[in-house]
Design brief:
Chain lengths: 476, 94
């Protein structure tokens, strides 16, 4: 393996987060009954005319600017011809010679992966091949015409690990900018790879294969590892490689060649006559640049610097825009960011997950968390009380500081109140007192436990212990 | 120029249609005529003429991103040669 170098380029497809399709008003909602979101345009009926969804162009431009690409001042659509049952028009409206944007890059782990181009296109329908249908396939055109961007890298990736990192980074940016939900199970993020191997030090590229059908990050890594091994062992045997398209078979964990008839690459592109071109002027670019603002990786660096957070904490907090915004709102009102980070990443994250709630809709708003954090620091409440209050807040929707106030959960500092409970507990437990007098130190822990139970855990532990020991001495 | 039978075969493959020998020969002749006809355009000097991207001199025609409820999906489905459970049914190709 060491004498060979692996060369990978990726083609990443992401469905754009629009309400309606690329060229018609049908809904893009995932998971509806088959063919309920179709119209003459996306079903490819003759005589229909497509109209570009402006939001789709805007989202694509956001992705382009975030990935440092130059938006083309002039861009147009082209028809890509192929014949397949998931494509009702027998051509896909895509872009060819004048893509939306070109010449960007994305840095991962200190290496720069150049991005060749980003273009827009429409998605195809979905084919289902059920076993009992025998010689038939079923076609659902709900996905037909859903807007996509395709991000094409230069062959700059050198390992399956890097490919996976790159994908994860793209996913993070697109999610953060709300360009795509990047749900790989639902197919809104998909990836094909071109991979070849060459002797270390060689300038020329080896014969490449295109790998398709990788449906998860893990599949991408495994398929590329497998394919690199396959190519290297072929070369070592002195066999020639064939430029071909191969499919990843996740069940068998191998790549398989397609029959040559299925991989015709002659798409006979020509300009789409039904759509007028579009131009992106500098004021549009500036507006989008302002919308893109700070990217996750920049925000992470700032969190480390401004809030003295660890790399890990900053990474988790900036993974989603909403979480990062929430944290910053809290941090603006409270001087100990690490304490806030711990509660957000710990109990609050767990409760959001178990209650299937977004952080923006959390019953524990930033002001609530700031109030609670201050109460902890002032010694008014304990961590276990906060846990209870947060849980109840998520169950009822009532703000946690209100729960603490109403249920009187704040710690008891009042010495008279604590002393009263001490007296009562000592009188009820003569045996424990006797044990203590006989030198059994653990009898004190028992008594503290009893007092805590009587005060529902709210007695200030320091005051309680000090006063109990004093009281026991007195009655000696 | 010369369109050969193999060219027609290749196009037939791309379009996934089967052609008889007789059809291949006939289409080769016909296509050659069509291409000859269109190729006369290349005799015109276009050196100083800017390319035309579209017949209309307009750009940036966009629609708002709004959902219009599909009202004719059943009608579309009924026009298909075959359907089952709301799906279009087509010959299996994999």
């Amino acid at each position: 393996m060491e004498e060979h170098e692996i060369v990978i380029g990726l083609e990443v497809h992401a469905e754009l987060l629009t309400e309606s399709k690329m060229f018609c008003g049908c809904s893009t909602k995932f998971g509806s009954a088959p063919n309920t979101q179709i119209c003459p345009v996306c079903a490819g009926l003759p005589g229909t005319l497509p109209v570009i969804n402006g939001k789709a162009v805007e989202l694509a431009l956001k992705a382009a600017i975030a990935l440092k690409c130059r938006p083309a001042s002039f861009s147009r659509f082209a028809r890509k011809h192929y014949f397949y049952p998931d494509l009702p028009k027998n051509f896909q409206i895509s872009q060819f010679e004048e893509p939306l944007a070109e010449g960007g890059y994305l840095s991962i782990e200190g290496r720069t992966i150049r991005i060749k181009r980003i273009h827009m296109e429409e998605d195809a329908g979905k084919l289902l091949h059920s076993e009992d249908e025998g010689s038939f396939s079923s076609v659902d055109l709900n996905r037909s015409c859903v807007p996509l961007i395709e991000i094409v890298t230069e062959p700059d990736i050198r390992s399956s690990f890097e490919a996976e990192k790159f994908l994860a980074s793209i996913k993070r940016i697109l999610e953060y900018l709300e360009v795509s939900d990047c749900n790989m199970e639902e197919g809104s993020l998909r990836c094909d790879a071109n991979i070849s191997v060459r002797k270390k030090g060689d300038e020329a590229f080896g014969v490449k294969t295109e790998i398709k059908n990788m449906n998860s990050f893990k599949a991408v890594r495994k398929a590329l590892d497998y394919e690199a091994r396959r190519q290297i062992s072929q070369l070592k045997k002195g066999e020639k490689l064939r430029q071909e398209t191969r499919l990843w078979n996740d069940g068998l964990q191998i790549t398989e060649g397609m029959r040559s008839k299925e991989e015709a690459h002659d798409y006979r592109y020509f300009p789409e006559p039904d759509l007028v071109p579009f131009t992106v002027d500098s004021s549009w670019t500036e507006r989008i640049t302002a919308m893109v603002g700070e990217l996750p990786v920049q925000r992470k660096e700032r969190f480390i610097k401004d809030y003295s957070l660890s790399d890990y904490d900053a990474e988790v907090l900036t993974a989603g825009k909403d979480t990062a915004d929430y944290f910053e709102k809290c941090a603006a009102g409270y001087p100990n960011p690490k304490l806030l980070a711990n509660w957000i990443m710990g109990d609050i994250a767990a409760l959001l997950k178990s209650h299937k709630t977004d952080i923006c809709d959390s019953p524990v708003g930033p002001e609530s968390l700031v109030r609670i954090a201050s109460m902890i620091e002032e010694g008014k409440i304990t961590g276990s009380i906060v846990k209870k209050a947060l849980q109840e807040s998520f169950d009822t929707g009532i703000a946690p500081e209100k729960i603490i106030a109403e249920k009187n959960l704040a710690q008891i500092h009042n010495e008279d109140r604590i002393n009263a409970v001490i007296k009562e507990t000592v009188e009820e437990n003569p045996k424990a007192v006797q044990d203590y007098k006989n030198g059994k130190e653990q009898a004190v822990s028992f008594l503290i436990g009893q007092i805590m139970r009587k005060t529902s855990g709210q007695a200030n532990p320091a005051i309680l212990k000090k006063n109990l020991l004093e009281y026991l001495k007195e009655i000696k | 120029m010369g369109i050969k039978k193999e060219d027609i075969e290749y196009l037939g493959n791309l379009a996934r249609i089967g052609l008889t020998d007789e059809e291949k020969e006939r289409f080769a002749k016909e296509l050659e005529k069509i291409i000859y006809y269109v190729s006369q355009l290349s005799e015109v000097s276009t050196e100083k003429i800017p390319p035309v991207w579209h017949v209309l001199p307009v750009t940036n025609v966009f629609r708002e991103d709004g959902v219009e409820k599909s009202s004719c999906s059943e009608e579309i489905l009924s026009g298909a040669p075959d359907e089952s459970d709301g799906f279009f049914k087509v010959p299996r190709i994999i």
